[in-house]
C-alpha cells in the first residue's frame, strides 16, 4: 500500500511538476475511483483551486496558441507626416501662350509653381478661347496637375485654325501635312563658347505661300543670345506650306532650333 502511494505521488510529480505535487499534499488534488455524477461540481471547484495554485507558482496551464498574423507594411510603416502649411505644386497642362491665369483672383505666373494648400477657383483666359474655370484643391506638400481644356470662343473673330492652342489641329482639322522649312534650323556656336546652349523651340505661323508670318518663343534656351538668334533665323525662313486635302493652307507649327558647335 505504501509503495503504491509513493508510486502515485511520483506519477503526480512527473505529470504536473512541483505545483501539482504541492496541491496534492495540500489535499486540493485527489483521484477517486468511480466518482459519482453528483460530485462533478465539487471536482470542478477543486480543479479551479488547483489552477489558481498553479498560477500562483508562475506556471500556467498549456493553451493552444495561434501565431499572430503577419502585419502588412501598411500596418507597420507610417507615412511621413507633412506639416499642414507645406505648399503643394500646381502644374497646368495645355496652357496657351499669353494666357492669363488666376487663383481666387490672384495672378498665377507660368504653367507651374508652388501654392499654399487651399481650395481655389482656377480661371484661365486666352484670346480666341472661351473662359475656363474650375475648382481645384491643393493639398499640403502634394503635386496637382490640371489639364486646361480651352474651347474656341463662338464670339471670337478667329477660327479654330487661326489661333494656336491645346486643341489646335485636333483630329487633323487644320492640316494633313505639316509645313517644312526649306533651310536648316541649326545655329552655329563658336568652338570656344563656355556654354553650349540648350535647343530652343519656336512656334511659327506659316502662310499658305510659304512665308513666316509670326514667331513666338515656345520653349526657351538657357542662353538668351541663342534665343535671339533662333528668332532672327525663324523670321527669314521659307517653307513648304502645310497641306489640307492637297491644298496649301496657313498653319502653326513648333520647330526646334539646335546649336551646332563649330
Keywords:
15 strands; four-stranded mixed beta sheet; 3 domains; Immunoglobulin-like; 262 residues; alpha+beta; 4 helices; four-stranded antiparallel beta sheet; 22% helix; flat
Task: Describe the model.
22% of the residues lie in helices and 29% in strands. With 262 residues, it is α+β, with helices and mostly antiparallel strands. It has three domains: 2-56, no CATH class; 88-147, Carboxypeptidase-like, regulatory domain (Immunoglobulin-like); 170-261, no CATH class. A hairpin with a 2-residue loop joins strand 2 (100-103) and strand 3. Mean pLDDT is 77; it is low at 28-45, 53-69 and 75-79.
Compact description:
This protein has 262 residues and is α+β, with helices and mostly antiparallel strands. The chain has helices at 2-25, 40-56, 73-76, 224-236, and strands spanning 88-93, 100-103, 106-107, 112-115, 118-125, 132-138, 143-147, 180-181, 186-189, 200-206, 212-219, 239-240, 242-244, 247-249, 251-261. The protein has three domains: 2-56, no CATH class; 88-147, Sandwich (Immunoglobulin-like), CATH 2.60.40; 170-261, no CATH class.
* Count of beta strands: 15
Shape category: flat
Number of domains: 3
DSSP helical segment count? 4
Query: Any low-confidence stretches, pLDDT <50, length ≥5?
Result: 28-45, 53-69, 75-79
- State the end-to-end distance: 118 Å
Q: How many whole angstroms does the radius of gyration measure?
A: 43 Å
Strand content: 25-35%
Q: State the secondary-structure class.
A: alpha+beta
Largest sheet: 4 strands, antiparallel
